Amino acid sequence: MKKPLKKRSVGNIVLTCFFAVLSLVWLFPVFSVLFNSFKTNAAINLDTFALPNSESFAGFSNYLKGFTFGNYPFLKSVAYSAVITVASVGLILLCCSMTAWYIARVAGKFSKFFYYLCLFSMIVPFQMVMFTLSFTADKMNLNTPYTIPVIYLGFGAGLAIFMFVGFVKGIPKGIEEAAVIDGCGPVRVFFNVVLPMLKPSLISVGILEVMWVWNDYLLPYLVLDRTKYMTIPIHVQYLKGSYGTVDLGATMAVIMLSIIPIIVVYMFCQKHIIKGVAAGAVKG
Q: What is the pLDDT of residues 129-180, one digit of tens each?
């Protein structure tokens, strides 16, 4: 019995070291953006991967420049990104959880067909529909930060419904039947019984969708009127001077400011992602 335990412990140590090195490799771009945000533009061009020193250190001037660079305020971009993210994720969580409950509880050809249609939407490349989508969004006036969440609902529904359906199937039907006996209608059963039990899955889906919507560049770029509305990823692209010159220091600073909220949210909620994914994998 001792030899297998020894081999297992050695194997765990090897795997731990391997994944520790791998995590550093994945984190290196983030650290690169961080220390470059404190360097002068000339120093970044000369040696991108060098650490700041007494000559190349720019302090917080890059962050101040990122806030004030150009004619479009950075805080305005932050506000639009926040509005789009909150509205889109809220719409996805509400509509997709209700749809998943219907699919899991109402057995029929229509519900199965709709479920497989949602799964199919997960494998359709965005490039196949982006031109048609842009045209349709303009015709239906969905090209503002207050209407684009409808488009995000369509693209985010596949993953959300897939995870919610797996979780709902693991909920005993007896709990819902007891609520019906007590006089609850379908709406009250969902909001008072099912929705509270969906909390782990709601949190995990919410975090994944927040990371996607907040960092998304292509969809807002195609749909929104960029002369009026800019999200943070679009704002980063427009940090250019004359003749296409780019202030890399200010760009790195703005990128760092944009990823900090997502990193903080993910660090505090990563355990819920694992629980929600595991719960959504249950098949009833």
A: 888 888 888 888 888 999 999 999 988 898 899 989 988 888 888 888 888 8
Distances (CA, A) of 16 to 21, 29, 163, 176, 275: 9, 21, 29, 44, 22
What is the per-residue pLDDT across 177-200, written as a single tens digit (0 to 9) for each?
888 888 888 889 999 889 888 888
Distance (Å) of CA 176 to CA 171, 189, 236: 9, 6, 49
Q: Give me the count of residues in the chain.
A: 284
Q: What are phi and psi of 246, to 5 degrees?
A: -120, 130
Give how far the C-alpha of residue 152 lies from the chain's centroid of Cα atoms, to the nearest Å.
11
* Token pair in block for residue 236: 């980063």
CB-based burial of residue 93 (10 Å sphere; 0-12 exposed, 13-18 middle, 19+ buried)? buried
Cβ 99 vs Cβ 115: under 8 Å: no
Alpha helices in the chain (DSSP H): 2-36, 41-46, 61-68, 74-105, 109-121, 130-139, 149-169, 173-181, 186-189, 195-197, 199-215, 218-223, 232-237, 248-280
Helix (H, G, I), strand (E, B) or coil at 57: strand
| Alpha carbon distance 67, 272 (integer Å) | 34
Residue with tokens 């970044």: 44
The Cα–Cα gap between 3 and 173 comes to 48
Eight-class DSSP state of 240: B
Structure tokens at 184: 């609850």
Residue 107, SS3 per DSSP: coil
